[in-house]
Amino acid sequence: MANATMEEFEALLSESFEMDTPEEGSVVKGKVIAIEAGQAIIDVGYKMEGRVELKEFANPGEAPEISVGDEVEVYLRAAENARGEAVISREMARREEAWDRLEKAYADDARVEGAIFGRVKGGFTVDLGGAVAFLPGSQVDVRPVRDAGPLMGLKQPFQILKMDRRRGNIVVSRRAILEESRAEQRAEVIANLTEGQTVDGVVKNITEYGAFVDLGGVDGLLHVTDMAWRRVNHPSEILSIGETVKVQVIKINKDTHRISLGMKQLQEDPWDLVAVKYPLSTVHTGRVTNITDYGAFVELEPGVEGLVHVSEMSWTKKNVHPGKIVSTSQEVEVMVLEIDPAKRRVSLGLKQTMRNPWEVFSETHPEGTEVEGEVKNITEFGLFIGLPGEIDGMVHLSDLSWDQRGEEAIQEYRKGDVVKAVVTEVDTDKERISLSIKALGGDKFADAVGGVKRGSIVTVEVTAIEDGGIEVEYEGMKSFIRRSDLSRDRAEQRPERFSVGDKLDVRVTNIDSKTRRLGLSIKAREIAEEKEAVEQYGSSASGASLGDILGAALKRDE
Length: 558
Hints:
With 558 residues, the chain is an alpha+beta fold. 18% of the residues lie in helices and 39% in strands. One of its GO terms (molecular function) is structural constituent of ribosome. This is 30S ribosomal protein S1. Residues 25-91, 109-175, 196-264, 281-351, 368-438, 455-523 form the S1 motif domain.
């Protein structure tokens, strides 16, 4: 009997040795046998007990749910510590269990449940039932989230983007879940929309180029150019966030699910009546809405704008920025020059509402009128004089003086000088006014030689003696008689035989109005007199001497 008892004992002993003792680093099942001092004492079998902090049994932000008698899985870190107890961890068991579960979900591309419990640099921490994952800030929502407070501790689904067990890294996304459900919702809403349909929507967001309108789970873009027929500088002028608006679906892109909306399409197009309301050459009052380098836009009525090109802004101000002539919001009178209904363009003129200043000037200042003005500019070809009506007239070099060369005469003038001149020509088409300063006192040359013809005998006064001849003056006009024209007799062709102040009868050989010179000759007068005497008193063949003929002629005159 004793032998049998010993055999049984040996059998039991060997059986106990053969039983698999749990390996360190594995998850084992245990039973809570006591709870004391914030710890749970757990019997993991094999005559091993260990302690686990109660907080390891709680989810983040929740109270621990554990009581004596509960069966739990724990991670066996070491079979025995210095106090002879097993070193166990509930948290590590949960993590191992969670990783197994998450790896399977990641492989199946399945969603996992978790709760955001903390904020870290660049994002948030999420508890996935034992494993901690990182949720980047960009993956929280479809749009940037200013306050993530309401999302904290909330059980919700996440998508695993990346995981690395060796490094203990998991990256998750909440946005992917939202986009997926949003895409389903969008597809459903878009399927019920048709182009041309009128729908109600709520203004969700406003940008510089338009507004995003929520059509019930799907957003459409209402571009700024489709808000009104008139020019809208910024969408906030006519819309505000949260406002309900009636819009028309203009276009649906089935591939990108983008929806274009319009508000003006629900209003009457003012362009339908433009040609009737604004006939060509009619004058209307409008408001300047925009100024550019090439002109100014003028609103004739809401939705109808026309362009006043810079060339049609002023008769006189050329090469000036439109902003120097008109200002934004200014009321102006404009004339309709052209209408292009296809391109929805109206060409307007500002200067056409005022009279052409060159036409006005030609009416008030006919040719020959004397004017006075300030020298505005001096160029190599003449002077520009400011005239009434903000226009300029030009005095050409050749019209500055009778006596001086133009290049010399222009030296006497300075910018700002006030001068008088005579209007010689007005060309309204070329917008050109020609003036003359030298014509102020009339044409001295024309007056002087008015009754003089070629061949006339005139009396001149000697004003200077030179080697080549003599300078003489007739009616204030200077002329020069060359040495060869001083006498018929070569011996008498000496300038020194004349004195300044002598009065001489000379024959006019030439009248040059261009150079304003008289051609004079004593020799020609003598030859003409001889010819005349011969014709009257005899012929050269009759034998009478010249002295006899001249003597007879003199007696007759006496």
